[in-house]
Design brief:
Largest sheet: none
CATH topology of one domain: Receptor-associated Protein
Strand content: under 5%
Radius of gyration: 28 Å
Helix content: over 70%
Structural class: mainly alpha
Number of helices: 12
Oligomer: single chain
CATH class of one domain: Mainly Alpha
Length: about 290
């Protein structure tokens, strides 16, 4: 099984390889089309866009898997803090409470807790082990919560009261993030609706207006009312132009949906793939 977390550490290399392969494949496509006159399913420009998207599928899977892992960890943090606070209230010290928590199921966070326990058993100082956990996970919620745990441990006193405050703070942050995602989701849907409208209008224009104009046998003087814009164009070329425009719209719309929905452009690549697939299917089937 592919270790996407390990690959994410080398994501610059993964993206570099994907870009290089996409460039090589694009050059081959252009050479086959222009030099060898090999028939292609789509024009070279369209094929270049599609092939480039294909070569970015693997980096997108890597990004998606890593971000899902981070979300699962953040989802488990409030529950972990509640359990640790409850354990400390029974008289168990903080580091022992975290070691015991490694035996419970917190999803991917359990694996990180087991690493923390192993480091503590090997004699790594508690603060160093916590810092290493923060560096491995690198989420805002883990960074904030475990940094506060370190400060509470240094302060001493009734740490269980401080843990309750930290747990409440983490839970509030988690709920705020969920509320933000819920409030943003309709805007992502609006982007899909706008893209669907664009595809529908494109299909209607090509199938109705441009088909009628370009296939008409009206005298040359009659076609001049449309200007010189369509002179020399065939219906196939018009279809390919609209297909390319739809793919470009899919790219920008998808990245916009990712930025709105997940706060990062990289999170929008799955939307790009979905919209691009919709575009190809609709143009192949209906146009």
């Amino acid at each position: 099984m592919v270790d996407f977390r390990g690959l994410y550490v080398r994501r610059n290399l993964v993206y570099g390889i994907s870009i290089a392969l996409a460039v090589v494949a694009s050059i081959i496509i252009v050479l086959l089309s222009v030099v060898e006159n090999v028939p292609l399913p789509f024009p070279p420009q369209t094929m270049v866009i599609l092939v480039t998207l294909v070569f970015f599928i693997f980096p997108n899977i890597m990004e998606f898997s890593y971000q899902r892992w981070r979300r699962q960890i953040d989802n488990a943090v409030p529950g972990l803090l509640a359990d640790v606070a409850a354990a400390v209230k029974t008289g168990i010290n903080l580091d022992r409470a975290l070691e015991l928590a490694a035996d419970r199921d917190y999803g991917p966070l359990t694996g990180e807790l087991k690493k923390l326990r192993a480091q503590l058993e090997l004699g790594v100082p508690f603060e160093d082990a916590i810092e290493r956990l923060i560096q491995r996970v690198k989420t805002v919620l883990v960074d904030r919560s475990f940094s506060l745990i370190l400060q509470a441990n240094r302060a001493g006193g009734k740490i269980e009261n401080l843990l309750d405050i930290i747990q409440s703070d983490a839970n509030d942050l988690y709920l705020l993030e969920k509320e933000r995602n819920a409030s943003i989701r309709p805007y992502v849907v609006i982007i899909y609706i706008a893209f669907g409208v664009f595809l529908a209008v494109s299909v209607l224009l090509v199938d109705s207006f441009f088909t009628s104009v370009l296939n008409s046998h009206a005298p040359a003087g009659t076609s001049s009312q449309f200007g010189g814009t369509l002179s020399g164009l065939t219906l196939t070329e018009v279809k390919n132009l609209f297909l390319q425009m739809a793919l470009i719209e899919a790219i920008f719309g998808g990245f916009g949906a990712g930025k709105l929905g997940e706060g990062s452009f990289s999170g929008g690549f799955k939307h790009v793939l979905i919209m691009a697939a919709m575009t190809v299917v609709i143009f192949v089937v209906f146009v």
